[in-house]
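Troubleshooting: if your tokenizer reports a length mismatch, compare your output against this known-good record of 417 residues.
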Amino acid sequence: MVFYRFWDILIIVSTTLAAIKIPIQLGSGYSRWADLVFIDWAIMLIFILDVPINFFRPLSTGGRSIPTKRERAVHYLKGWFIIDFLAAFPFQLLFGSPFFQLARLIKLARVAKLMHHRRRRPFQHSTLFRLSTFFFWLGLVTHWLSCGWLELSAAAGVPEASRTYLRALYWCVTTLTTVGYGDIIPLTNAQTIYTMFVMVLGVGMYGYVIGNVANLLANIDMARAHYLSNMERLSTFLKYRHIPVALQKQIYDYYAYLWEHRMGYDESTVLSQLPAALQSEVSIVLKQDYIEKIPFLKGAYQELIRDMAFELRPVVFTPGTYVFRAGDIGRHLYFINHGQVEVIAADGKTIYNTLKEGDFFGEIALLSSRPRTASVRTLDYCDMYTIDRDTFEKVLGHYPEFAKHVREIAKTRLEKE
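Known-good structure output:
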């Protein structure tokens, strides 16, 4: 639901704000952050409201949906309730110490869960999301280490003018990245131990960052990488076989169109990898509207529409291509998904009509194998769905009553023509 998506985003923002504000607020010399009490109250209110919202939130576990409110409440009590409750509980109001605000940071476990759940769901540019998630956590860790250095600098007696967050962040970044210019050095044993800890952490993080970022950037667009690899093989083949330059250009333009409109993937290939039930459902969503436009299929059984949608096949025609010519024996019906075609008389000059997205043509071919009375030529790239007469008859064979109805309509229509 849209509300729960919005609420998850609000929880992530609120928890992030708490993770930034609380550590720096607790540091020496940064009491002015404590003046922003309205932020603390807003965060606490959101965390409190999050508990009852999660009690009755629709969810599923192990592929099984949890339908009743009681089951959802019990499931929440056994799971994330303790973390959400501790993050929302007003410890500071009861005990007075501001350090109890750190309890709110356990809500970061919930943020990690939400991000992990999102990463498991495939979507376009998922690699960018992984990269953003990595830098999100890296930024928080860097911020916390900077706050720790600020606190140690205050304990070491560093003047307040030199004890700024920006300088602490600068020290943390240079140490984590193993640059270490040496212009900011530890003055006490505590700072020295802290610096060694950050150095060790930086060595491991440096290798992790370089390896993962390089891998993420290399695979930031798998579809484009797949497309460019295929185009390289195609180019090698065309040059090896000495295909004419003009024909090569047409082939390249065709694949460029497939990339721009289909991300380089063929619809039939993608659907063929789904289970039969899902193939049928997706076919209905994609093609039902086209089938219901055919006059002699109006009022057809829903099962017939489903079977017909399953049998429609996608085809692509390049600009200026004849889909068929006058005099050809008709065997296919076409639905225009994208693009335009013109219907041309047998003389090759007179244009009867221009058909666009959502139109269909060639339906007489499904009723009888008669010669085409006109030609159809594409005006631009055309995405279409098509079905042949044999397949149409095979589908109708499962619905004898409606097949009889269609043949009566066909007979009447052909007699009129």
